[in-house]
Model the fold of this input.
Amino acid sequence: MDVKLGFGSIPKPQYVFVSKENDHCWYMLSDDTKPIPIYDRALTGLITGIEVNKKVETSHGESEKTDLHILADKPYVVRSGSESYFSKSLLLSLDALTHEQLCQPLTIAVSPGDKTIVFCTIYNPVTYRAVGVSWDGHKEIDWPALGQKVSLKINNTQNSHQELNSSEHRAGFIAQTDTYLSQLNWSPEQGREFLQQKYGKRSRYHLSETEMLDFIDYLKLQLTHSYQT
Done:
């Protein structure tokens, strides 16, 4: 997301609430807590987390909610009652997805049912295919246990994704230093001695990200001096 400089709104997640009305199934709240209908039926973004059976104070007292965190044009939190059909269909759909699918953008759609019921349907925004779920035996499902299972699955997926990105960045840094060291004609022993003297470490793989960036800047400076002489 682009960061806009200057005056603007407070950078906080936008809460979206699920409720079946005549012409919409979810809404936001204005600054003075007035409902703002959302007529679009779908929200596409990256799922970044989920909180299940979260105790929330409402105007009707304390109740348990499910909060789905999604990063789209801004961070959103889709909130629904833990016992609602929306929350239950959300959990069934998320449980059916693989870790790889959870790392990709997904479309969360609201589907109106009878009376006040709203279902959640998850789509792949590339193939347009919905995640198929079965309601057979749903009355016997241990919903709190399923919620915890899905929560752990999503959290583990996000952690693995972050670690992968971190390892990719480090591999890129190492490749960059390989190029600079080759251009400077440094031997492996020269590199190890420098790292030991400068950072107290014998390997680039042991450098922190800050130290790695500092090392890269140093190598760039040495290359600049070599070109000038």
In short: The longest helix spans residues 143-184. The mean pLDDT is 88. The radius of gyration is 25 Å.
